[in-house]
Design goal:
With 140 residues, the protein is α+β, with helices and mostly antiparallel strands. It has helices spanning 36-56, 90-94, 111-121, 125-139; strands spanning 2-12, 19-22, 30-33, 78-89, 100-104, 107-110. It has a single domain (2-139), classed as Double Stranded RNA Binding Domain, CATH 3.30.160. The chain starts with a strand and ends with a helix.
């Protein structure tokens, strides 16, 4: 299924090139990136993962707020704000195994978010994948 929702991107005043992305129609749907482009990719992944979960649980999915009704004002932490629409395709997201990582039995995360968290923490994402594959092979 394809969706289009507004997203608001805030450029951090203190952390050079860091952008926070908020999907205002879904409380708590937020992410960040080290450039506006990266934050947009992360927002698409975060929204895709959320919508996939809602679809899988047969939960209602609210209609998007029109972009002109979305508040996009700088706050004390940001010096620039961009509001735009982002498009996601949950079928494409769901069917691409590279898009999600299973964290535990109840949690999946978009791989772009996992990669960014690993990068910030100084952890090698590829090593995690290799160890995960070894565990899978050991279980089989």
């Amino acid at each position: 299924m394809q969706y289009v929702y507004p997203a608001v991107f805030y450029k951090d005043k203190e952390l050079k090139n860091t952008w926070t992305a908020i999907i205002p129609d879904f409380e708590g749907c937020a992410t960040f990136g080290l450039s506006l482009y990266n934050a947009m990719e992360m927002a698409e992944d975060a929204l895709s993962g959320l919508l996939v979960s809602l679809e899988d649980e047969n939960e209602p999915i609210k209609e998007p707020t029109p972009l002109e009704e979305v508040s996009a004002e700088p706050d004390e932490f940001s010096d620039k704000v961009v509001a735009t629409l982002i498009k996601v395709d949950t079928d494409e997201f769901r069917n691409n195994p590279k898009n999600v990582s299973k964290i535990d039995d109840d949690t999946i995360m978009p791989n772009t978010l996992v990669k960014e968290l690993c990068r910030v923490a100084g952890i090698d994402f590829n090593e995690i994948l290799a160890n995960d594959k070894e565990r899978e092979l050991a279980v089989v």
